[in-house]
Amino acid sequence: MVKIAIFASGSGTNFDNIMQRVKKGVLRNIEVTALYTDQPTAACVQLGQQHGLPVHTYRPKSYVDKLAYEQDVLKQLEAEQVEWIVLAGYMRLIGNTLLDAYEGKILNIHPSLLPKYKGIDAIGKALNNGELETGTTVHYVDAGMDTGQIIAQRKCPIYQDDTKAALEDRIKSLEYELYPEVIQQIIR
């Protein structure tokens, strides 16, 4: 079994999707050790509890600096013998402490066809800029914002009458298929 930790900051829908697939045996030979979050009141916390997982909450502002924050997180990852980190809507840049410890072993999913529309509100940016298509990207995490090596992408059209909510739903559907596929292929 390969031990992974999932990091999330928000609703936790990608986290929940991954957990459902682990439980159904679609994602094999993977053990999710815990959910890590920087947002103690986020919806992902309740989902983690529903899945019977430990939920580790770290409030970055309660630390002297990013180094101290990540050192604390790293201690817990090491205690759980985590081999891979999977970001699922984690809204913080990963710093050198975790990047060095997990070099080449941190995955992220982003709702755009990177390198376009890095960072927040990628869907809104694609919609507002009149793009004809967008999608989702799974990539390795590096020190930049959504700049790591691209592993896989899936595209979807943007319709003329699309709302942001409708486009978000289509992209989430793509993410729910693509991310588990990549996780299974990459993490063995």
Automatic annotation (TrEMBL):
Enzyme class: transferase
Positions bearing the site annotation: Raises pKa of active site His: D146
Keyword Transferase: yes
Domain of life assignment: Bacteria
BP terms from Gene Ontology: 'de novo' IMP biosynthetic process
Pfam families: Formyl_trans_N (PF00551)
Catalytic residue positions: H110
Key words of the record: Purine biosynthesis, Transferase
Formyl transferase N-terminal domain boundaries: 3-183
UniProt family annotation: Belongs to the GART family.
Protein name, entry field: Phosphoribosylglycinamide formyltransferase
